[in-house]
Design a protein that fits this description.
This is AraC effector-binding domain-containing protein. With 338 residues, the protein is α+β, with helices and mostly antiparallel strands. The chain is built from five helices and 15 strands.
């Protein structure tokens, strides 16, 4: 009887172990990522910047998360066979190597990840001269996930794509004077005080929200201009629900006030104090999607858990109409954390 029971337990254990392995075997581990951006300089200038690994800390979408990452370079990092390596507490460790240069229109590289898991992928850059002063830059990567991590393949491709979008925009900022580009700072855990605000609620998809926000904040701005003595801070959006699968948002456009305001035409709400991780972005609002992505990426790297059911905030620290360039617009993102 005991022998039969032991056999049954072994069979159950094997089945439990086999099911996820069988599932993983049905998934594709290969992925390809490609992102592009036009940069307003000649192709040779872009080519030389990308070749120079020592320039990468200026625009790397990963090293900004850990500026103190330990970097090492080969003797000639801007030549074929040249490399640079990184080793950080949060960004992991690895090496990127130049394999081949094709005139000034293609760079082939190999990227080796050592931590958090080991893998090797191919990276290549394609530079297309659009005219005398504009170059289309394509950043590509192909590879495969280790067998036990195949369930992450789709997500990894999406994450790398967002990082490439960020890196290309930052590269444009380094190369093209006057170009729009984002810059990020990760400011740590803060206590956000309680606030009372006049609000305009919204529910709907992204495109509808963009229109609603333009109209809503215009109305709030008009109220603020006429009642400056009542305003206690900068306008903000409180996101109560965000569904990235259906691209659905439920939020409040808000203007903080010092006291109860009657007959304003807006709903008045109280937002409680809380513990948040603050990320700031300087740059056009067109980069806000990347800012939110980088904010959550930073939390994941730091192993800080967000509170999924709590509201998050987006504060507009200055007036876009009062700055000299969109790169001077400041937005602060507050993600609720445990």
């Amino acid at each position: 009887m005991e022998s039969a029971m032991a056999t049954v337990l072994i069979v159950i254990f094997v089945v439990i172990l086999a099911v996820p392995l069988i599932y993983l075997s049905t998934l594709k581990g290969e992925f390809i990522v490609s992102r592009s951006l036009a940069i307003g300089v000649a192709r040779e200038q872009v080519f030389e910047k990308i070749k120079d690994f020592k320039s990468w800390p200026e625009w790397s979408p990963w090293l900004m998360h850990e500026p103190e990452t330990r970097l090492e370079y080969s003797d000639a990092p801007n030549q074929q066979g040249g490399w640079y390596s990184w080793d950080g507490e949060t960004v992991g460790a690895g090496r990127l190597t130049h394999l081949k240069f094709s005139d000034s229109n293609r760079i082939e590289q190999k990227i080796e990840f050592l931590r958090p898991f080991k893998s090797v992928s191919q990276v290549w850059w394609e530079l297309e001269q659009l005219d005398d002063s504009n170059t289309l830059v394509r950043w590509n990567m192909s590879g495969s996930m280790p067998f036990l991590f195949r369930f992450m393949t789709k997500k990894i491709a999406e994450y790398v794509g967002k990082d490439y979008d960020t890196g290309l925009a930052m590269l444009r900022g380094v190369l093209e004077p006057g170009a729009e580009y984002p810059s990020f700072s990760f400011e740590g855990i803060v206590e956000l005080p309680a606030q009372t605000a006049l609000t305009i609620p919204f529910e709907g998809d992204l495109e509808t929200m963009k229109t609603a926000m333009a109209e809503g904040f215009s109305k709030l701005g008009e109220f603020a201009a006429e009642n400056q003595q009542l305003i206690s801070g900068c306008p903000f959006t409180c996101y109560h629900e965000v569904d990235l699968q259906t691209i659905y948002f439920k939020c409040d456009m808000a203007l903080p006030v010092k006291q109860e305001v009657t007959q304003s035409g807006f709903k008045q709400k109280h937002f409680p104090a809380g513990r948040y991780y603050k990320t700031s972005m300087k740059g056009s609002y067109q980069f806000l999607e990347l800012a939110w992505y980088q904010a959550y990426s930073h939390l994941q790297m730091q192993k800080i858990k967000p509170q999924k059911k709590a509201a998050s905030f987006e504060f507009y620290e200055n007036d876009p109409n009062e700055v000299g360039h969109t790169n001077e617009i400041v937005t602060s993102i507050y993600v609720p954390v445990k």
